[in-house]
Design brief:
alpha/beta, five-stranded mixed beta sheet, globular
Length: 348
Amino acid sequence: MRARRLRGGLKGWGGVGAMACACALAVLFALLLPVVRSHGESGGSGTGGHGVAHGSQARAAEECTDPEKQTLPPDDADGPTIDEIRSREGEKRKLVVGVDQNSYGWGYRDPNSGGDAELEGFDIDLVHRIAEDILGDPDAVQFKAIPTDQRIPAIQDGRVDMVVRTMTINCARLTEVAFSAPYFKTGQQLLAPKSSPITGYNDTLAGKKICTATGSTAFSTLEQDQRDGELAADADLGTTVPNQLDCLVRLQLGEVDAVVTDDALAASQAAQDPTVELKGDAFTTEYYGVAMKKDADDLVRRVNQILVEWRADKARGWQYSYDEWLSETMRRDAGKSAPPPPQYLRTS
């Protein structure tokens, strides 16, 4: 029901006026939800875990070919990381999770809900599921809004226990953090004004300014494609922003010609502004995962067990959240967004 209220509230939004309102809300609520930039906060994962399994993860990252398969088998056993989370006392006894608060359908504050405008979306549903399993309370969560380029530092510095923020599993990131099994299938896609001559990820991008988020898979993909000659040499990749939504604002202001991001996020942005649309098909295949510290093996295994159960839950599981938050914007059968059956590392 909350998703329907939000969709109704956004239906009349359009153009720069829409995003001015959205950005004003984002600034307002950023005061309520701390943006993780400093290095002085605690609340991270503990150390330790399965020594053999952790070694397997490290070797897998170095020899990475299929990053979505480089994760530990599911297990519901407790361990040092989970014990540290549970040992927090009073108000601090919460799962600390890095999320987005500006991605419609994923992690978003409902402007129509009043009061504290709670976070909602597909990623937020998953966070509540994890908190319920580990702490027995789906609301035992401290959300921390983090920009795209702060996701990995926030994990490494122990400011969050995990990041659930439309984060693509890739080989480079596996050298810095550990990932769960995939929970969503996506791919890079172009977003541009409906009136634009750009038709997709092709030679119509020659001479065009393209916006991406700093530290995103989109930027690294475009940069590599340009080096490989698969993207026009004069395509301008110089515009990068801390948060993906900022690219949509740049596009609406005419400062860039196109945005490249995951198709799931691009579809959500197109739903917010009727003057833009997806151009062409997705040109990569990628998977979102929950990111955690590299040595948090027990937490990785536990999250993988939770994902198995979430996918199998017919009442309030993966399909329910997809229908509630994403089906209207993605405009495709859930089967095209569901990841394949997970594959795990051999740890013995």
